[in-house]
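The aim of this short unit is practical: by the end, you should be able to scan a pair of folded records and say something sensible about each. We start with the first protein, listed as its amino acid sequence and then its structure tokens.
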Amino acid sequence: MGAQAENALENWERVTPGTTEPYCQIADFVECNGQEILVGNGRGRMALSVALRKAIPGDTISLAQGIYNVTDLEIDKSIALRGEGKVTLRSDRSVRKGLFVTRRGVSLLVDGLIFEGASSQDRNGAGIRHQGSHLVVLNSVFHRNEDGILATADGSGDLIIRNSRFLGNGYGDGYSHGIYVQKIKTLTVTDSLFSGTKVGHHIKSMAGRTFVQTSQFDDHGGMTSYSIEVAGGGDFEVSKCHFQRDGNAGNNTVIFYSANRGGVPGRLRITSNSVVSEKQNTIFFKNKTRVPAVMEGNHLYNRDSGKIRLHVGPAIDQTGTN
């Protein structure tokens, strides 16, 4: 895991400044006038398991600063969970699916939580295993899980990630990732950092649409494969992101797009990104469909003696610098 990622984890207050926008304006499944349930030690607070039983759809559960031992904690109603200070969720044993597991049809918002160290016998232990509808992740950290987020949802909901950190995730066999979306309507990632994913991809998406904006991708310490792989077609946009390709990265391609896992190719835009590579024969964007990608304003720099290729596969409006 790179120095940038370690600093992001240590400087918690700077990683997660908190969200001032009311949750009900971000996610319509959270009630503006819903009750707040307090979790932790102290007067007026209760255990997390009790709070989850007491909550009704639309409520917010606030966790006091501390470390919580959770294993396959089932979220069976649409709620928000937020941290007060530095709140770390981890398990003292192997999980079956993840630290948090959402039920089918359930939506979840999390804000200011650290999900750490999830592992399972099938090597896909997730910080959050999302099987429900909508998932909103704000100001949170996913640290050294086998999958940061594994979404095997019902395909009707959206996954929204803002200002979050994915650090050192992946089992190391190439089948687990920072974010692994198998089925979701739309994946949107903004203002987030991915660093040191072990052998797998920072983001692997088979969502109907995938949008990644104003985020950073750092391969150092992980032998990361693709920074982003979209394998199910659909609309795809990457804009205003920075990519750092390590010389030991597991693949010389930074972004890979295909419809190999089903789906239909959609609108493709790769614009205003920057790439610094230490990998020989780097390819910034590989398009395995017949739909041309719009590529504008991308800036490429290779610290190795070779040049970066802007793209392989159909593309138009090409601009870039080596």
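Turning to the second protein, read its sequence before its tokens, just as you did above.
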Amino acid sequence: MLLLLNNGIIKILYCSCTKQQAERHAIVVECLTQNNVIFVDGDFDMKADLHCHTTLSDGSLGIEEVISQARRAGITHLAITDHDTLSSLSRSAVLGNRYGVNIIPAVEFSAFDGERGTKAHILCYMPQKPDRLEGLCLRNTENRKKRGKKIAMKVIEKYPISIEHIARYASGGKAIYRCHVMHALMDYGYTTELYGKVYNEIFNTNDGICADIVKNETYEYPEVRFVLQLIHSSGGIAVIAHPKVYNNFELVDELGKKGEIDGVEIWHQSLSETDREGLVKVAEKHGLITTGGSDFHGFYNYYPLSLGDNLTPENSLIKLNNLHKKEVHA
């Protein structure tokens, strides 16, 4: 086993790889995380999942459960990207050290593409001054809290369950998400699945009982460029998440051309091979970093998947690291 430290010191505890291999990979992890520690068993095999969620937003597992599972899955680098919250940063760094998983500080912001009238999710990695993002987190979270309460009140008008029971599933974070509503309905036998007939009856934008709330949700988010400016002012790296989900392909090309984003997530289960090939060409054209992640939500996954099902390749981690160092010295 190797213990690689950010200052370049390599302490060999047990190793079946060469010193040269260890030194090469020490370069990869240099300055990549706040805790700056990585454990390597035998031949180094880097596995980086840069997109997952916990109970701080709409995941079903807590921070420690996610990190310990990442360790069991052989993941060496993990970014916890809860929606519009930085609350995981301190605790995840401590737990990452405990479990031997490099935690890359991150958050996933919701934004509005006004030109096209669509949502966009933006992953922010390694912000140097995260306090500059707190106002944005608060704004989005407060809107989500109000929206979640409205949804819950609408639902209990039709289904005789308590709002307290819905809220218990949101207790790890600050807002009620759709998955929390559906989980409560499952508890009382109104449905046996998270996503299906009952979900559509509630959240369908045309005739669902919460249609008006859902349709107006998009317009409550801040403009994409405002979010990008804040991320870069914090010294963070901005990556467009799962562009297929909200049809952000044109947006990616536009922002990439203007140098307003740093990367795009292309290893995600929502993308077809054709989609991915197109995004690779766009990324190459504009010099964007290509990333990947499982977008793991635990029990609340829309797709059947687990941590590590989509990964960021080593060369992309190196590019993230180089850009991070450039931001540090800017």
